[in-house]
Design brief:
By secondary structure, the protein is of the alpha+beta class. The protein is built from two helices and six strands; from the N terminus they run ββαββαββ.
Length: 81
Amino acid sequence: MDDTVERDISGHTLRIDRTLCIGSGNCTNLADDVLVIRQDNIVDFQDETPDIDAGRLEEAASVCPVDALILEDENGDQIVP
């Protein structure tokens, strides 16, 4: 699996740096319809990712204790971290 994966969700780009992820699950608690902890104990995208409220997506990215989730707005400007 790639070290970094990304998806366009709700007009934003969410990127997961799998080399940083420690599998805390904080993000999945807030956005389990988008994110999942896989068998390797690292976060990944659900197979299908629906659009969700952008504020919820931002909150899910911001609770990552190691900044493994990077969120950019529709202009490509980084919002989180």
